[in-house]
Amino acid sequence: MNNKCQYLNISEDESIVQEWIDDMESSFYAYTILLFAWNCQSAENLKVFSSFQQKLFDAMISLLQNDQSLVVVRSVSEALKFMLNDENPVDVSLEQYKVLSNALTAWCGFKQPSQDAPRVRSEQVMENLTGTLNQLCTQIQDCPMEVLHLPQQRTVHILVQ
To answer: pTM to 2 decimals?
Structure first.
């Protein structure tokens, strides 16, 4: 018996991608974002996802804006790590960049924790989102420097600094 984990073969039915986008925009997103992030590790699936890249990016940012639980933030950060590349750029707005920046700040711990900001940390989320933000920052025209430096100002973690 083969116990090896398998990826879905998305090319057999590409309509599943639109269904996942719809799920991410509804209340059925937890399982979907986990499944999507897992399947982003397949090079064959990434080829299919590239046709939906902007829609997927927008759906993930919207999801991240509404839910910053570890499941969502980790899955989005993993998916973006695999999806974003120079061959298939996405259009990113300043607001979307801020959502990613806020997620990074939330999951890297704070210099001065407060009552309403619990101290949480995920090395994987920090690494993935720092790479994503670095990649996307060049695509935003007239991005205020304070937005670019917000995570650096709010954390002591060397990876983010």
So the answer is: 0.81
